[in-house]
Automatic annotation (TrEMBL), chain A:
Record bears the keyword DNA-binding: no
Family affiliation: Belongs to the WD repeat THOC6 family.
GO terms under biological process: apoptotic process; central nervous system development; mRNA export from nucleus; mRNA processing; RNA splicing
Quaternary data: Component of the THO subcomplex, which is composed of THOC1, THOC2, THOC3, THOC5, THOC6 and THOC7. The THO subcomplex interacts with DDX39B to form the THO-DDX39B complex which multimerizes into a 28-subunit tetrameric assembly. Component of the transcription/export (TREX) complex at least composed of ALYREF/THOC4, DDX39B, SARNP/CIP29, CHTOP and the THO subcomplex; in the complex interacts with THOC5; together with THOC5 and THOC7, plays a key structural role in the oligomerization of the THO-DDX39B complex. TREX seems to have a dynamic structure involving ATP-dependent remodeling.
GO molecular function, one term: RNA binding
Name of the protein in its database record: WD repeat-containing protein 58
GO cellular component, one term: nuclear speck
Record has Lipid biosynthesis as a keyword: no
Organism: Bos mutus
Source taxonomy: Eukaryota, Metazoa, Chordata, Craniata, Vertebrata
Automatic annotation (TrEMBL), chain B:
The encoding gene: THOC7
Annotated region (Disordered), positions in chain: 205-227
GO terms of biological process kind: mRNA export from nucleus; mRNA processing
Localization terms from the record: Nucleus
Keywords from the UniProt entry: Coiled coil, Nucleus
Name assigned to this protein: THO complex subunit 7
Organism: Bos mutus grunniens
Single GO cellular component term: nuclear speck
Family: Belongs to the THOC7 family.
Role summary: Component of the THO subcomplex of the TREX complex which is thought to couple mRNA transcription, processing and nuclear export, and which specifically associates with spliced mRNA and not with unspliced pre-mRNA. Required for efficient export of polyadenylated RNA. Plays a key structural role in the oligomerization of the THO-DDX39B complex.
Coiled coil: none
Main location: nucleus
Length: 341, 227
């Protein structure tokens, strides 16, 4: 009865605005802190929120522990991608990449450490950055996005070393193949290209839509998600989610999932994928669907596994997408609770 | 007036004294009750028995006749043995409690050890699970590749087919060579034949011409030698 009475009071403009903002929010990217206790999430308004995983997972967690510890305006446009090094949080979206110190990020009024813009060919339009990839051995950061090129930035000096050209349309996703070391990039033009980092040249191209087993022309040819395991690669998006053997460039298993997948990752002996659809799907390498766990958002855009060795009690899978909530799965079998912006 | 107050004062004094006495009495009875409870935990009248024994001992010491003294003596002995019996019982119970405590200590330590052991086993099992998952992943990767490979035909068969085809090719090329040789030979022979025919023809024509010329010469010689 008390609740109903409270709702009858007219809400102020600020609250209406906030509620509308939360309704239309999309969380594009997530990143775990190096200590493993915090999770950063970036949304389409350019805000980054830091959640405390250790507080939310502890036994005396209350409703406030599921709210962010701090939210700040990081970019002018959506934050499409974030990665963490062992001291910094790097976020990118509207053509710039900014760095924040994890140690300072919880304080009010945190300022970015530095911001950089890769050298674009035209200065008229600033293309967005869709994907960031850290190459820890060479201390490189690779950015890829709207201008169809992969830019490499040295993290120590901040200079942009080279740009790889080859894609004919914008790039969606990047993955690192540790053994060679090579970078895989997948884009709107339907091709997965492998680039060698040392020689900065294209090594292989796999045109996924040309293979009959996986192509789905009614969905398009775009590659939305990539993950690699040095010998194997999973990619999906317009074409069906498929497992490829990289050495022979042959598709070995097609996963029977209708909806296009937006994020995929290898975990132990499973492949986890999420996309258009509420559920996080768990696949065996043989193509069988092991489990489908529903989340709270109508569509999922990013998955993050907290495998930091410093915080084994915070080892969770978090999924975020077309809503203001970030689902936390403590055990891959069910959704434990949701953090909310 | 003075008498009344005096009386009142006396009364209050008396009341006060009476109350104090009562308090003392209560305290004493409390103490006594406490002591009695401590001594006589069982409630089977041990304390009373001991008091009775003491009293009967004193009576017996002061008694006169022989028989009465003897019966009293017997009664005292029986009470004494009863007291000894209950004392023995309490001692045994005390021993039993001590041993139970030891037993519990032992069980407690055993359970602690088994908990530690269980923790270790859990860690072991977790490692084994990871290992098993890796094995399963490898097996599935193998299966996936094997499926792809199955689509392609067997290497032995292909090699055999290749060999057979190679042999056929060789055979056919041999035949081709021999046929070509034959063709050459026949061509040469025909060439020889034709050239001989041509020569013969030529010779015949030459002969004819010669004979014609000779005839013409003879005819002219026949007309000529008349002059």
């Amino acid at each position: 009865m008390e609740r109903a009475a409270q709702q009858a009071v007219p809400l102020g403009q600020m609250e209406v605005f906030e509620a509308l903002q939360r309704l239309h929010m999309t969380v594009f990217s997530q990143s775990v802190s190096p200590c493993g206790k915090f999770l950063a999430a970036g949304n389409n308004y350019g805000q980054i929120a830091i959640f405390s995983l250790s507080a939310a997972l502890s036994s005396e967690a209350k409703e406030e522990s599921k709210k962010p510890m701090v939210t700040f305006q990081a970019h002018d446009g959506p934050v499409y991608s974030m990665v963490s090094t062992d001291r910094h949080l790097l976020s990118a979206g509207d053509g710039e990449v900014k760095a924040w110190l994890w140690a300072e990020i919880l304080k009010k009024g945190c300022k970015e450490l530095w911001r950089r813009q890769p050298p674009y060919r035209t200065s008229l339009e600033v293309p967005e950055i869709n994907a960031l990839l850290l190459v820890p051995k060479e201390n490189l950061l690779i950015l890829a996005g709207g201008d169809c090129q992969l830019h490499a930035m040295d993290l120590e000096t901040g200079t942009f070393m080279w740009a790889l050209r080859g894609h004919t349309d914008y790039i969606h996703c990047l993955a690192l193949r540790e053994r060679s070391p090579e970078v895989l990039s997948g884009g709107e033009d339907g091709a997965v290209r492998l680039w060698d980092l040392r020689t900065a040249k294209e090594v292989q191209t796999i045109e996924v839509y040309k293979h009959e087993e996986c192509s789905r022309p009614h969905n398009g040819r775009w590659i939305g998600c990539l993950a690699t395991d040095s010998d194997w690669m999973v990619c999906g998006g317009g074409p069906a989610l498929t497992l490829w053997h990289l050495r022979s460039s042959t598709p070995t298993t097609v996963f029977p999932m209708r909806a296009p997948q937006k994020h995929v990752t290898f975990y132990q002996d499973l492949i986890l994928s999420a996309g258009q659809g509420r559920c996080v799907n768990q696949w065996q390498l043989s193509g069988e669907l092991k489990a489908q766990v529903p989340g709270s958002s109508p569509g999922l855009l990013s998955l993050s596994l907290n495998q930091q060795p410093a915080a084994p009690e915070c080892k969770v899978l978090t999924a975020a997408g077309n809503s203001c909530r970030v689902d936390v799965f403590t055990n891959l079998g069910y959704r434990a609770f949701s953090l909310s912006f | 007036m003075g008498a009344v107050t005096d009386d009142l004062l006396k009364n209050t004094d008396e009341n006060f004294q009476y109350r104090k006495n009562e308090e003392k009495h209560l305290k004493m009875t409390n103490e006594v009750i406490r002591k009695r409870l401590l001594i006589d935990g069982d409630g089977a009248g041990d304390d009373r028995r001991i008091n009775l024994l003491v009293k009967s001992f004193i009576k017996w010491c002061n008694s006169g006749s022989q028989e009465e003294g003897y019966s009293q003596y017997q009664r005292m002995l029986s009470t004494l043995s009863q007291c000894e019996f209950s004392m023995g019982k309490t001692l045994l119970v005390y021993d039993m409690n001590l041993r139970e405590m030891e037993n519990y200590e032992k069980i407690y330590k055993e359970i602690e050890c088994s908990i530690a052991g269980a923790h270790e086993k859990i860690a072991e099992c977790k490692k084994q699970i990871l290992q098993a998952k890796r094995i399963r992943k490898n097996r599935q990767e193998y299966d996936a590749l094997a499926k792809v490979i199955q689509h392609h035909p067997d290497r032995h068969e292909t090699l055999k087919e290749l060999e057979a085809l190679g042999k056929e090719l060789e055979h056919l090329s041999h035949i081709k060579e021999s046929v070509e040789d034959k063709l050459e030979l026949r061509r040469k022979q025909f060439h020889v034949l034709l050239s001989t025919i041509h020569e013969l023809q030529q010779t015949l024509e030459n002969d004819e011409k010669l004979s014609e010329v000779e005839e013409a010469q003879e005819a002219s010689m026949e007309t000529d030698p008349k002059p």
